[in-house]
Specification:
Helix content: 40-55%
CATH class: Alpha Beta
CATH architecture: Alpha-Beta Barrel
Strand content: 15-25%
Number of domains: 1
Radius of gyration: 17 Å
Strand order of the largest sheet: 1-2-3-4-5-6-7-8
Order of helices and strands: EHEHEHEHEHEHEHEHH
Shape: globular
CATH topology: TIM Barrel
Largest sheet: 8 strands, parallel
Number of helices: 9
Oligomer: single chain
């Protein structure tokens, strides 16, 4: 089997001392592809550096909504040039809106979201979307500013059936994290999984965050190897043989990011 972790933050300082070993554990668990996701200028540069060093690892660049107030037109241009000159950059993100902790004011978030959408469209890159507690505003901004080049994935989907349908109608993929493995918190997500077309699902860790069960009972830090817990949960939910599901998800990941491996 081959499994792709479509969203991890390998630049995080918690991997500084053992990134090589972390990747080796992933290989041992049949995780053979990685998307290392940027959240600002510094982490985007680091994500690209890591992608260059690791086999079948790719990178995205962008400003997370938490850091929207720190972004600028010049830094967006810098990331555009970074993406243009490095073939390992296969996505823009993660970008979007987050009204949970409001690290950046709403207007700053929306302005950066729109500017980065335009940047992604201009480069014909898929977008990794982040949405949290926006009560529909994320969808409104996205729908208003979408064009024919819109493609991407709703990272860590945690919405309801209404918004699941809206995202699917926009042609987006749905990213499933370790939340689906957690008994209480993941109940609604498990109930919605059957409504996602099999060719529009990808799986992710969001490592080092969102450690899935049963690993979360032993360790705090998530890592790409643990995406297999998400995979096994989906296999049980869908009643699909593991080998068959792994091919579906692998093919989805490659298609989403236009990767040929």
């Amino acid at each position: 089997m081959k499994i792709f972790d479509t969203h991890c933050h390998l630049d995080d300082r918690c991997y500084k001392k053992d990134l090589k070993e972390t990747i080796q554990r992933a290989y041992q668990n049949e995780i053979c592809g990685f998307m290392s996701v940027g959240t600002d200028k510094k982490t985007s540069v680091k994500a690209v550096q890591i992608a260059d060093e690791i086999e079948n690892c790719y990178a995205s660049v962008g400003f997370h909504p938490h850091y929207a107030k720190e972004g600028s037109d010049d830094e967006i241009e810098f990331l555009k040039k970074l993406a243009q000159k490095n073939k390992k950059v296969k996505a823009w993100g993660e970008i979007g809106l987050d009204f949970n902790r409001m690290y950046s004011p709403q207007q700053d978030q929306e302005n950066m979201f729109i500017k980065q959408l335009k940047a992604a469209f201009s480069l014909d890159l898929p977008v990794i979307f982040h949405e949290r507690d926006t009560k529909g505003r994320f969808y409104e901004v996205l729908k208003t500013n979408a064009d024919d080049n819109l493609k991407g994935v709703v990272h860590c989907f945690s919405g309801d059936k209404q918004y699941l349908k809206k995202y699917l109608d926009l042609g987006l993929y749905i990213g499933i994290t370790g939340i689906i493995t957690i008994k209480g918190r993941g109940a609604e997500l498990r109930s919605l999984a059957s409504f996602i077309p099999k060719d529009r699902i990808v799986i992710e860790t969001d490592a080092p965050y969102l450690t899935p069960a049963p690993h979360k009972n032993r360790v705090k830090r998530n890592e790409p190897a643990f995406v297999k817990a998400v995979f096994l949960t989906l296999s049980r939910l869908f009643e699909i043989e593991e080998e068959k599901l792994s091919k579906i998800l692998w093919d989805n990941s490659l298609k989403l990011f236009s990767i040929n491996i």
